[in-house]
Amino acid sequence: MALRLLTARVVRPFSPVIRQAASLAAIRGYATKKYTSDHEWISVDGGVGTIGITDYAQKALGDVVFVESPTVGDKVEKQDQIGAVESVKAASDIYSPVTGEVVDVNEALADEPSLINSDPENDGWLAKIKLDNEAELDCLMDEAAYTAHCEAEEH
Fold first, then answer.
1. Contact indicator for 54, 35 with CB cutoff of 8 Å
2. Stretch 11-28: mean pLDDT, rounded?
3. Is the pTM of this model over 0.70?
4. CA 108 and chain centroid, separation
5. What residues contact 69, with CB distance under 8 A and at least 6 apart?
6. How many of the other CB atoms lie within 10 Å of CB of 85?
7. Which of 22, 28, 97, 148 to pair with 142, CA 20 to 30 A apart?
8. DSSP states of 6-65 as a string?
């Protein structure tokens, strides 16, 4: 009985606020995913950008067999090479879409580079970079612009 009373008096009045906060967080997370013309993506949360290659890029590369990652602590400038991906068909450099410091790398890619093929925009991320200037994100494409960019490349 006490739990029911607590729920009625405390939780219910705040449930619209909780739902609204959750939906705003989802929108904010979605809105911060940006793309480069070189087919890298970055998703920013709390001033740290997670970087990887797009699904379009991994399809073009084919089966990934090796991934070169940056080193934690590296300072990178926008457009610096931060890694490379080698596949059975080709090799491709990966460039940083932002300026900052590498704070984490995806260690799982060393043992399982195929994560880039199976889940390039989630488990196949390459590195996390603490952004020096979030305004650099304004120069990158949103999902609609990136989709149009890919369609233009196909023709």
1. yes
2. 49
3. yes
4. 16
5. 82, 83, 105, 106, 109, 110, 126, 127
6. 25
7. 22
8. HIIIIIHHHHHHHHHHHHHHHHHHHHTEEE-TTSEEEEEETTEEEEEE-HHHHHHH-SEE
